[in-house]
Write a structure and sequence with these properties.
The complex is a heterodimer of chains A (107) and B (117).
Chain A (H helix, E strand, L loop, with lengths): L3 E4 L2 E4 L5 E7 L7 E6 L6 E5 L3 E2 L7 E6 L2 E6 L8 E7 L11 E5 L1
Parallel strand pairs in A: 2-10
Antiparallel strand pairs in A: 1-3, 3-8, 4-5, 4-9, 5-6, 7-8, 9-10
Chain B lengths: L2 E5 L3 E2 L5 E8 L9 E7 L6 E7 L4 E3 L7 E6 L4 E6 L8 E8 L3 E4 L3 E5 L2
Parallel strand pairs in B: 2-11
Antiparallel strand pairs in B: 1-3, 3-8, 4-5, 4-9, 5-6, 7-8, 9-10, 9-11
Classes of the chains: A mainly beta (107), B mainly beta (117).
Chain lengths: 107, 117
């Protein structure tokens, strides 16, 4: 099974900041990497798929990069609605696995 | 736009069967090439993919749960369902249904199922 290691596990930031979250796969997964946002009381939503493709309706302040085993999610110009938990997930092979999440909190 | 909503008992006793249904609106379970998945998140832990049923009715399960899980679909009711047998307190989690393509989305809002006597 492919293990996904995400860092940091938590992050404090202020409105207007730019933050970066990292995800590492235990083996090469090409660009089969997706990023999700989870906010309390709301359904999770996909932000980035195929490592760098912005999902429909997602603001361009979200961006993804990487391939193989190292991936990053960058969020620029943080707004209050961006605070929540972010997960990476590999779709290279079953069982499809997630990172442990990064909780982004308002400083 | 496809929308999903989970439903089912919120409290299940240890050793019994957890049963949840996902109601699909805005799309057909057998149309297109979608896969219909269940995912869960135990308290304080990462998300775990449980398995999927395809538009053609084939299934694929996480090996960690394969001996206890079954996913089925009723296209006439636009529903797909999860059954998890012989539950323990470790199965307490928020359970989500989701469309699976190369990524998961859209998702239902999730439902917390507690396993307790």
């Amino acid at each position: 099974d492919i293990q996904m290691t995400q860092s940091p596990s938590s992050l404090s930031a202020s409105v207007g900041d730019r933050v970066t979250i990292t995800c590492r796969a235990s083996q090469s997964i090409g660009n089969f990497l997706n990023w999700y946002q989870l906010r309390p009381g709301k359904a999770p939503r996909v932000l980035i798929y195929a490592a760098a493709s912005l999902h429909s309706g997602v603001p361009s302040k979200f961006s993804g990069s990487g391939s193989g085993t190292e991936f990053t999610l960058t969020i620029s110009s943080l707004q209050p609605e961006d605070f929540g938990t972010y997960f990476c997930q590999q779709s290279f092979s079953a069982p499809y696995s997630f990172g442990r999440g990064t909780k982004l909190e308002l400083q | 736009q496809v929308q999903l909503q989970e439903s089912g008992p919120r409290l299940v006793k240890p050793s019994e069967t957890l049963s949840l249904t996902c109601n699909v609106s805005g799309g057909s379970i057998t149309g297109g090439t979608n896969y219909w998945s269940w995912i869960r998140q135990p308290p304080g832990k990462e998300l775990e993919w449980i398995g999927y049923i395809s538009y053609a009715g084939s299934t694929n399960y996480n090996p960690s749960l394969k001996s206890r899980v079954a996913i089925s679909a009723d296209p006439s009711k636009k529903q797909f369902s999860l059954q998890l047998n012989a539950v323990t307190t470790a199965d307490t989690a928020i359970y989500y249904c989701a469309v699976q393509l190369r990524y998961f989305g859209p998702w239902g809002p999730g439902t917390l199922v507690t396993v307790s006597s």
